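Fold this complex.
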Amino acid sequence: MLALAQVQDLFVQEAVVRLAHLSHLLLELERTGGSQELVDAVFRELHTLKGSAAVADLDAVSRCAHELEELVEPVRAGQRPVTPELIDTLLAGADRLAAEISATHPVPEILVDNLETVTPDTVTSGATEPNGHSSGGAAHAGAVLVSMDRIDELVRLVGEAATAHLRVGGLLNDRFGVDPASCAEFNDLSRAINELQDRAMRTQMVPVATITDNLQRAVRDLARAQGKDVRWETRGAETELDQGVLTRLSESLLHLVRNAVDHGMESPAERVAAGKTPHGTIRLHAMQLGSEVIIAITDDGRGVNIENVRRQAERQGVDTDGMAEEELLQLTFRPALSTTSFVTDVSGRGVGLDVVRANVEAARGRVEVRSQTGGGSEFRIVVPITLAVLRCLLVEAGGQRFALPFHRVVVSLPPASAARAHAEGRPVVLLDGRAVQSSALAETLGLPTGMHPSGPIVVLADTAHQHAFQVDRLLGQRDVVVKGLSELLPHLPVLAGASVEPDGSVLLVLDPPGLIQRARHSSRPTPPSAADEDGMTRRRILVVDDALVVRELQRNILERAGYQVRVAIDGSQALSRLAEEPSDLVLTDIEMPVMDGFELTASIRAHPTLANIPVLILSSRADDTDRQRGLDAGADGYIVKSGFDEGSLLTAVSRLIGGRS
Amino acid sequence: MHAVVVPVGADLYAVPIDWVRQVLVAPSITTLATAPSRVLGLFNLRGEIVPLLDTAALLGVGVIDPVAFAVVLRSSRGPVALAATGMPERLSMDGVPAPSTLPGTTGTWHVDGRVLVSIDPSALLAAAGLVGPGPGSPGVPVAA
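Structure:
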């Protein structure tokens, strides 16, 4: 007999899949108008959840499912039509149900295979009782639920077997003088282990379909809230990629689809006026191309306003003269630039495309944009299928071997072909006629240097910079199985992970963006002028609000995040403060005595020396008219106080002026 | 209390046995570039990559050089090893300990004429700021 805790564990495992299936059914119900079959399926899911929750002694969950079941009952009986409002209520109910479940019991991390194949019917095993209450088993012919811990363990053990196998090969050769390649038994074992390793890796792959329902839901909810008519389509959702990669991307994809609705999609009236259909379409198209997966989010909305991007970039000091449209579009991934003129708290809580790019790059991928004014936009995310195996360039520096992920290597140059020079107080390497800053890799890593003052050069790139690193030796390239570093270690930005070598030693895999940042920081010839005791420049923010509590709350949040904060009680005082000493950002309320936030913003924009200071409006007014007034006055962002928490404030601020360094 | 004694220079520290997964003779270490000095490096434990910490540096009583043994601890955040300068041994400690002063320690014990200071690994790691990027405590012993 199972203990109650075990029953509850099983229930949670079952419920996770059932809830995902329920959301999927509800969205289908709305899209297709609803067949009796779909309505019955929704009813069945709720009924089973109710029954299983009661069995697991989770009364609150059971009650919640019961209430939803009662809503569906009249639809099932043909007494009530399927309306968007009903779907709203049911989706919100499904969310409440999920919240109830996670509140009573932590949801384990589970690898849910393709929802097409693992519907709850295949999950609950043949143990469904006659009364429709499932006993919540987890196995059925064709599919099982497996916890990620078990899969990680499996992959680890296979890796261990492969390492031991190589050592046995070495032993055969050294001790018995037998060439392992000529030994049939050894070769059989090699084949089996290789295949096992390949299959073990595949167990971590999931189809893109596992996240498309969430995206569809986000599109649907936002479109309804904004009175837009948007259809959602998916193609290639069966494309598989590493679960870890997909998890890292899901937030970015969510942002892109919300962005498409919020910024890209016009209202039905605007669309008709532009000669389009009243409904717009947002499409997700996934496909595998070699060892990469491409996920494209396409909309047929208004497209990116190139002139707006150009204006914003120029205000940030970017010279856009002679830039082709394509280059200008790439600027939308710069911090503080937006496809609209505003940082909004709709398309991802004030998070911009720069964050999307950073997340995609963390998954070792890249993001591209194409857009046509009036015709729509396409964002393409290209990522490797798995993060577990990475093509690397192996180098030696400071007497230690390191792996450099190949997709970040621009070029590697033998000692003789590297043209070295000196410029602006630091060493540079000439690459295609350009001077690229250069450092010794060992020095950047804090290792002993001086062994090979004119060793080979490896040029690495992140999204913004290229940097040349001088190494002791180039050791060739190969695939490296990368493991994350222990969670107990502090975050080390120069490291991407580590790998166990065939000889049992540990190889460090470096993270080029972190490495470049460290090298650039340490090779600065003079310290920055406004630096605090850590040697980090502190960004200055002027907080303008007539309410003491709000002012002090914001000051507290920003100071804790490392910003230098001054305050003013209204627009007029803010202007005097700025005249004394400029700030890197002004964060202002709207309603204030003497001079309000709109007037302050307009005055800053009209001022000859203050005009380029970003202004972020923080107001309790959620009205679109106020948002528009803010835009007209020249604000760079608008956050509604009711929706603001510490995280979204800091994200918006950091997006406009960067972190504290 | 059953414990494993971790010699650190002239001092003896005791780690509750529930935490200890295994003891190894000085493993071969890969230095972890840019890491703080209390992280001596990484080693391979049957395919797992385990960080080795300088027990003396964690406690603030100097540095360990050279490492003679590694005591591998199990925590909810994965394995982690403490460096020792002499051979660790198993020991039973009874009675009430006298207070101890170093962060991460829980008391001073007298056993067979020797003085031992008991360690709470969770508190020791937290005191050293080794709590990783995630929330929560640095870990608790997990069942074998």
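The longest strand of chain B covers residues 2-8.
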